[in-house]
Amino acid sequence: MLLMALNTDMARQDLARLGRQHVKTGHIGYRWNKTAADMPILPELTEELRHFPADRVPFVPQDKSDTSYTVASLHNWFRGRFATAGVRGPHHSLRKAGARRRAHAGATEWEIVSSPAHSDTTQAAVDTKKAKGVRLVDSDLAKLNAGNLSNLSMMSREVV
Which InterPro entries does its entry note (predicted)? Predict the structure, then answer.
């Protein structure tokens, strides 16, 4: 269920209803409130979905039954799992993590908000700015490493 939340970026109310009927040839086709969405299924989620029984309608059934979670009970399930793992944060933390992961992969603000349930680019702008800074530092250090240049060797060259 955690991979489902992380890889679909769905709000709880949508995740609670998601089922095999929404999977169409490598995509999840779903209607979020007034917006229809068709998103590709990422490879790690494809692998996870192989473990779900073919006859299970909701992907996330409550207590090993065929009944979907309610929004409130799914929230409590996530909260319990986070507490057991010693991690702070609700289900929404997974959605934020997904957006940050896309930002670090180079997604633009508009690419990030194109996934379901995002209404504007405010938070995406913060995520992409932070990710750009991390990528620039990584790129800079990679250039230093590629030239076998350490700060000490550069300082000794400048002193001489």
Answer: DNA_brk_join_enz, Integrase-like_cat_sf
Phi, psi angle pair for 38, to nearest 5°: -140, 105
pTM of the model: 0.62
C-alpha–C-alpha distance, residues 112 and 120, integer Å: 10
* pLDDT tens digits for range 39-57: 888 888 888 888 877 777 7
Question: From CA 135, how far away is CA 32, in angstroms rounded?
Answer: 33
| Dist. CA 49–CA 43, nearest whole Å | 10
The answer to whether the CB of 60 falls within 8 A of the CB of 18 is yes
* Protein fold of 2-159: hpI Integrase; Chain A (1.10.443)
